[in-house]
Amino acid sequence: MKKLAFILGLLIFARPASADDLTGLLRQADLIMRGKTSGSVFSMEIQTKRYSRSFKMVAWEDNRRGDKTLVKILGPALWRGFGTLKVGDQLKLFNPRTHHVTLVGQSMLGDSWMGSHFSNDDLVKETKLAKHFNHRLKKKWQAKTADGKDATFYLLSLSPKPRAPVAWGRIDYQLWRAGDLVMPVRADYFRKAKDKKPTRWMTFGQVKVLGGRKVPTEMKVELASKPGEYTKIVYRKLKFNVEIPSSKFTEQALSH
Q1: 99-133, pLDDT tens digit by residue?
Q2: At a CB cut-off of 8 Å and minimum separation 6, what does 165 contact?
Q3: Domains of the chain, first to last
């Protein structure tokens, strides 16, 4: 009996991660930069064949009573004041040159933000992977992270749920877990579920402690159709669970 119990214990310990485990891992990796509230300062570097741009940006998020996000460009002076405001399902863009606010429809979520390779959706995190996609485990393996930590790596295949407001037919999402720490590694985006090659990919790197939490401080997006081009975000400051007045998420705050 003891031998049987020992064998059963090994089988239970070695079983693949359950669907609930994978959901939790996916949610934790996808929302790693979010808290109840947060404030961040980051740079965005855009490299294309036609131009290079660099922005300094600030973002505020409040996830306590519906999703609220305000993102504004601080500099350089030529671009200062451009911004994006998300309140619930409503997304608005502000152009300080024309002093015009544009309401963004669901069809525009996948559009480029300010000529970058990031989309409107990427910037305000409208899509929640665990909420809007079904997922299955494609691969699981043991390896070391970039900083030499022993970790379990997962490759998940995500397919959109019916009527989900998403632009992709499939996402292949890679993450790792080491103890209680879960970290995103790479997301490959496929226009159609059966496509063999991704349309674009996002990589996560340079894990550091910001705001008292280990996070990937660099995110880079590249497109298959534009080799050599990229947009990279680098977080400089990040604070979680900060006090943010409700007036921060208004059209007046967006346009001033």
Answers
A1: 999 988 766 777 888 889 998 878 777 678 998 99
A2: 106, 109, 126, 127, 132
A3: 20-254 (2.50.20.10)
